């Protein structure tokens, strides 16, 4: 009875296997696959199980039911949707202000009219301005304004395009030629923003694999240029030529050991350091540059128009030909009271930037009225250097009141004797940075109440490479007389004395 039931099943199974075997044998190469499976199973049965599982998964993946978008969406009622909307709280775009920042914001002065040597506040009273980079007092000079207005009527407000497209006009080329002659370089290229000039010049020449050796006291714009270049960056101690030579020598030895083709190599520094008021030792830098075969990039944003017999910057100050420096970079927004920046160098250095300087190629060019204003400011300085005499006399007066008459104050005054600004820092650091800033801000507020406009030096602390200690930056201007400068310095000295005495 049992045999009569199983015999037909065995016959059917045998017939099925025979048909399947013939079908598989008909496939080209099947005999090789069968031999591989038999040998694999004999040597490693678990591998056969794994491969069978993978084949089964592939069959399931391609044959199984696919998920269709929207097929399992949860249907919410209008009430539930509104509840979710009410509960949602977006992340803030910026961090909320601290109590100190909020207090500082509320105390910002409101200035009526233009900002010059003696701006008028909303309370109707004038303040002596020791906060702006108006070193030569050219801000709001009528002869500069008149030329700017003429340019506005001739060329319009802006150029609406980069220099390489349709943003170049005749006054741009005239200013470039004027700057090159003033500095003493073969050629110059004009940028439309002062900050982005050095941040564009550095990566135009230095790329990945190149070497940049920079002073660790350089300003924020240079730091960004170093970062954007993606070059290898080595720092030396601020204005320490012995440490610079140590770094250069270590790089020389390293290069000899590696037996690599020499990379492009640059020394990067400032002429007059914005964060300290120090002047770089240019002759020694040039000596190191020549000895170790580097190129020198010199940022003169704060020294141009200020240092030297002609006001032509650090090269003029030390009596060094500008052609000895590979690249001289500067801002037109400080001493010359306009906007934009420049880079001086050889014809090759300038032409490369016209092709590869990011801020030159991709930023709208400097408006004609600002270009003409800058040209007029440089022309005025070249025609009459008496303004430099006035500036230096005011610097001496300020330093005499603060450093000599103010001796014994619990503060430090940083800056070279020729620098047109002084950084005032607390002699004894407080518990944290914000507490120091709060104390210095009280000095700023006290000076403002007594007729002098000051400002703390502002930094993006989280982005600074080597953040300096908090300070009040006191700037000197030729727009004020010696008597006004002396009065302002006395107010500052008394404000420091009063505030810090009250905090003891």
TrEMBL record:
<keyword id="KW-0443">Lipid metabolism</keyword>
<feature type="domain" description="Aminotransferase class I/classII large">
    <location>
        <begin position="128"/>
        <end position="490"/>
    </location>
</feature>
<dbReference type="GO" id="GO:0016020">
    <property type="term" value="C:membrane"/>
</dbReference>
<dbReference type="GO" id="GO:0046512">
    <property type="term" value="P:sphingosine biosynthetic process"/>
</dbReference>
<dbReference type="InterPro" id="IPR004839">
    <property type="entry name" value="Aminotransferase_I/II_large"/>
</dbReference>
<dbReference type="InterPro" id="IPR015422">
    <property type="entry name" value="PyrdxlP-dep_Trfase_small"/>
</dbReference>
<dbReference type="GO" id="GO:0004758">
    <property type="term" value="F:serine C-palmitoyltransferase activity"/>
</dbReference>
<protein>
    <recommendedName>
        <fullName>serine C-palmitoyltransferase</fullName>
        <ecNumber>2.3.1.50</ecNumber>
    </recommendedName>
</protein>
<dbReference type="GO" id="GO:0005783">
    <property type="term" value="C:endoplasmic reticulum"/>
</dbReference>
<comment type="pathway">
    <text>Lipid metabolism; sphingolipid metabolism.</text>
</comment>
<keyword id="KW-0012">Acyltransferase</keyword>
<keyword id="KW-0746">Sphingolipid metabolism</keyword>
<dbReference type="InterPro" id="IPR050087">
    <property type="entry name" value="AON_synthase_class-II"/>
</dbReference>
<keyword id="KW-0808">Transferase</keyword>
<dbReference type="InterPro" id="IPR015421">
    <property type="entry name" value="PyrdxlP-dep_Trfase_major"/>
</dbReference>
<dbReference type="GO" id="GO:0030170">
    <property type="term" value="F:pyridoxal phosphate binding"/>
</dbReference>
<dbReference type="InterPro" id="IPR015424">
    <property type="entry name" value="PyrdxlP-dep_Trfase"/>
</dbReference>
<comment type="pathway">
    <text>Sphingolipid metabolism.</text>
</comment>
<dbReference type="Pfam" id="PF00155">
    <property type="entry name" value="Aminotran_1_2"/>
</dbReference>
<keyword id="KW-0663">Pyridoxal phosphate</keyword>
<comment type="similarity">
    <text>Belongs to the class-II pyridoxal-phosphate-dependent aminotransferase family.</text>
</comment>
<dbReference type="GO" id="GO:0046513">
    <property type="term" value="P:ceramide biosynthetic process"/>
</dbReference>
């Amino acid at each position: 009875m049992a045999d009569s039931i199983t015999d037909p099943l065995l016959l059917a199974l045998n017939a099925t296997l025979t048909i399947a075997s013939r079908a598989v044998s008909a496939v080209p190469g099947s005999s090789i696959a069968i031999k591989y499976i038999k040998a694999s199973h004999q040597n490693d049965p678990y591998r056969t199980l794994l491969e069978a599982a993978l084949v089964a998964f592939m069959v399931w993946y391609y044959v199984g039911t696919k998920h269709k978008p929207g097929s399992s969406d949860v249907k919410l009622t209008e009430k539930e949707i509104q509840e979710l909307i009410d509960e949602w709280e977006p992340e803030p775009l910026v961090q909320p202000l601290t109590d100190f920042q909020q207090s500082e914001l509320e105390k910002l002065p409101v200035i009526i009219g233009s900002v010059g040597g003696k701006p008028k506040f909303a309370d109707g009273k004038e303040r002596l301005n020791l906060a702006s980079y108006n070193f030569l007092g050219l801000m709001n000079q009528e002869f500069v304004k008149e030329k700017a207005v003429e340019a506005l009527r001739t060329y319009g407000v802006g150029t609406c395009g980069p220099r390489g497209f349709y943003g170049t006009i005749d006054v741009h080329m005239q200013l470039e030629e004027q700057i090159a002659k003033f500095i003493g370089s073969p050629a110059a290229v004009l940028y439309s923003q002062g900050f982005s000039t050095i941040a564009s010049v550095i990566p135009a020449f230095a790329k990945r694999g190149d070497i940049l050796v920079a002073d660790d006291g350089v300003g924020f714009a240079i730091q960004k240029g170093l970062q954007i270049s993606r070059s290898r960056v080595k720092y030396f101690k601020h204005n320490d030529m012995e440490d610079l030579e140590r770094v250069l020598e270590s790089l020389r030895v390293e290069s000899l050991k590696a037996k690599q083709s020499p990379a492009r190599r640059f020394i990067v520094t400032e002429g007059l350091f914005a964060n300290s008021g120090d002047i770089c030792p240019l002759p020694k830098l040039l000596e190191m540059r020549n000895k170790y075969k580097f190129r020198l990039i010199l940022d003169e944003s704060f020294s141009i128009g200020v240092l030297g017999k002609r006001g032509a910057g650090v090269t003029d100050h030390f009596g060094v030909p500008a052609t000895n420096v590979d690249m001289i970079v500067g801002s037109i927004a400080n001493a010359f009271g306009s906007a934009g920046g420049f880079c001086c160098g050889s014809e090759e250095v300038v032409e490369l930037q016209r092709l590869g300087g990011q801020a030159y190629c991709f930023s709208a060019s400097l408006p004609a009225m600002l270009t003409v204003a800058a040209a007029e400011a440089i022309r005025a300085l070249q025609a009459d250097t008496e303004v430099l005499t006035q500036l230096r006399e005011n610097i001496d007066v300020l330093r005499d009141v603060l450093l000599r008459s103010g001796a014994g104050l619990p503060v430090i005054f940083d800056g070279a004797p020729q620098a047109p600004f002084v950084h005032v820092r607390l002699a004894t650091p407080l518990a944290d940075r914000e507490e120091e800033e709060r104390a210095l801000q009280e000095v700023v507020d006290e000076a403002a109440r007594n007729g002098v406009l000051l400002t703390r030096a502002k930094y993006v602390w989280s982005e600074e490479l080597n953040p300096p200690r908090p300070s009040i930056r006191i700037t000197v201007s030729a727009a004020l007389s010696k008597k006004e400068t002396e009065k302002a310095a006395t107010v500052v000295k008394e404000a420091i004395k009063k505030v810090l005495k009250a905090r003891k």
